[in-house]
Amino acid sequence: EKGGYPHFMLKEIFEQPRSILDSMRGRLVAENSHLVMASVIEFENKFKNADRILIVACGTSWHAGLVAEYLIEEFARVPVEVEYASEFRYRNPIIKEGDIVIAISQSGETADTLAAIELAKSKGAMIFGVCNVVGSSIARATDAGAYTHAGPEIGVASTKAFTAQVTVLTLLAMMIAEKRGTIETSTLRQLMLEMEQIPTKVEKALQLDTEIKVISEIFKDAANFLYLGRGFNFPVALEGALKLKEISYIHAEGYPAAEMKHGPIALIDANMPVVVIATKDSSYEKIVSNIQEVKARKGRIIAIVTEGDAVIPDMAEFVIEVPDTHEALTPLLSVIPLQLLSYHIAVMRGCNVDQPRNLAKSVTVE
Ligand code: F6R
């Protein structure tokens, strides 16, 4: 049932070209400028008129929500707030009729997320679900939604569900933008074309596996890890750190790269591996200076860069190249090496990667 892979997690990591494609299927055909999500069309006026969008989720799904915040604000120009479901529901949140609440959940059974949407619903918000499990409690509690088609995710650490969520949320952001008229036709077209290339590019990123195994061997005994990213890749830094801590039990922190100097920089010394996501995008120059700051303090830099980068290889100890794409789509590629890194480190440390201690696949307790 593991399809020849030693663990479900590795199988699921390698399924991503397929699960991303399945999550786009029927929704996007760039050649015909076809971009359709039935539930967005059904609630078109809500999406056109909403003054703001709230996103509620937990864990990895919350990280997908953060990516969605960047996407929706960039393209659809609607203010977005991303909330931990558990914080949102207990603080008498301000919700108005006309607000849209997007709930993201792989299992569709997370107790805090379910309670958060029941609360938002009672205050008149429209609830849009992004769930993986068909017919799950959250899917049933929503007014509308778009399923991720990742297929069953068995490994406790979420991998293919995350990229499927980001895929669906990217299409959603593009659709909202189109309906609100906030995106240039040429930009939309370019995004659609790039999006269609993502499964092939993920396939290519997966070929990094052997290289990442070598790096994992070198860093497997580290006590701490720092993950840095900016813009669309800030949530990916958080996700990379979460993946590592949950399955390898190494302490890891994800940070917006520019925030490093406001505290975490104090932790950097010759024993601190720092994973920096430094793909060619609008914050590239800035992140190059962040890398220099880490290097000046002898931190050990593992950089995720865009193929062909000629600058960072001279600065970083290890460089992992991912294919080039539109800046807004880089999370779908940059997260792949981070999943593989945590997987290999955990296996090398003898951890049970599919069932890490203290964790459950569905968190139905509050
Ligand atoms: C991380 C992980 C958890 C879940 C979180 C939310 O790898 O698996 O952080 O993402 O418990 O679960 P869902 O998406 O089922 O609501």
Automatic annotation (TrEMBL):
Presence of the UniProt keyword Membrane in the record: no
This protein's GO CC annotations: cytosol
Chemical reaction(s) catalysed: D-fructose 6-phosphate + L-glutamine = D-glucosamine 6-phosphate + L-glutamate
EC numbers, comma separated: 2.6.1.16
GO MF annotations in UniProt: carbohydrate derivative binding; glutamine-fructose-6-phosphate transaminase (isomerizing) activity
Location in the cell: Cytoplasm
Gene Ontology biological process: amino sugar biosynthetic process; carbohydrate metabolic process; fructose 6-phosphate metabolic process; protein N-linked glycosylation; UDP-N-acetylglucosamine metabolic process
UniProtKB keywords: Aminotransferase, Cytoplasm, Glutamine amidotransferase, Repeat, Transferase
Major enzyme class: transferase
Positions of the SIS domain: 43-182, 215-356
Catalytic residues (UniProt): 361
Subunit structure: Homodimer.
Protein's job: Catalyzes the first step in hexosamine metabolism, converting fructose-6P into glucosamine-6P using glutamine as a nitrogen source.
Protein name: Glutamine--fructose-6-phosphate aminotransferase [isomerizing]
Organism the protein comes from: Adhaeribacter arboris
